[in-house]
Amino acid sequence: MKYGKLAVFTQPGEPINIIEEEVLPPECDEILVRVLIAGICGSDVHRLKGDVPGKSMGVSFGHEAVGTIERLGEEINADSLGVPLNQGDTVYWMPLTPCGDCVDCGLSNPLRCKNVNWPPPIGKPNGACFRQYATLSSKCVYIRVPPDVAPEDVITFGCGMPTALRGIKQLGEFPANIDVVVQGSGPVGLACTLILSLAGARSIIVIGDPAHRLEAATLLGATHVISLTNTTPETRSELVNDLTEGRGADIVVEAAGTAVAFPEGLDLLGMDGKYLILGLYSGSAKVLINPVRINNYNLRIIGSLGLDIDSYKKTVDIASDHGRRLQFSNLITHRFTLHQLEEALNLVGRGIPIKAVVVPN
Ligand SMILES: [Zn+2]
Ligand SMILES: [Zn+2]
Fold first, then answer.
1. Whose CB among 60, 184, 343, 357 lies 3.0–4.6 Å from 189's, allowing a Cys bridge?
2. Which residue in 120, 75, 58, 76 sits closest to 95, CA to CA?
3. Please, what are the domains in the chain?
């Protein structure tokens, strides 16, 4: 009989326990995976703080993962896009299991599916990745990672990369020579910086902190960086105004995760500007804005929460095309064992790592 360790979260304020469960062979439509690397996401920290509604029972969590296929269920021979899979292959997966049939799933917002079974209760195999062995349901998204792509390069931005890819897709077509402001230099902000740089943006101004994240932004294509703590909203507005020759930004991406960023971001937009909101997915807040500006500047505000298979596939493609060239793995500044998960989450909560990962095996 085989056993695997897993992290258990019960409720905010309670310690995260590491327990052992029997590793069951996969059902015919499942895949058993040995977890190679599991990214720690800002949303995991929100869960710990109680900002994310949860059940006060033991659950597994962790949703940014790459692993090696231990065993394929009899009916599974390909990934979510039909690429053949074999034992020993590496896969990148999203462990939520949306039903695929309800209205929200139909509206391409499976994260709102009532049957998403997330976070999954312990005691049954599941695809969460703060564990040594994960079991992927056929409702999970899983994408084969070619052998020449480093697992670390796929996980560097965590779910920030598919989040950024899906969000930027919601902006629709845009010309290459645009001026962009990215609010936030965490994984989502950095992923947006890279994607918009690859898309040919004329200028990308990243507002964030600390210094090593701003250096990473520059490496990934930011043309200018502004320290949040060393400036005020007024000085940032003047800087963006100067850098865009008085026009204001064509696109502002909110990846800061704080509501105060919203009115500021709105004011940084120029005529016909688009504001993409990616980071305000938890808690609740009210802020003052000037709606007249939205009207008279033809502004559009676009929120994006969700997932699509295409963004997971593109995440692997970006790791393949740019991971080595831009040394993505240098952005993984902190690595932890499964037993150090709580310490790791606290560090991520304090914004210290660029990216922290758990290596459970
Ligand atoms: Zn995440
Ligand atoms: Zn559904």
1. 184
2. 120
3. 3-156+323-358 (3.90.180.10), 161-303 (3.40.50.720)
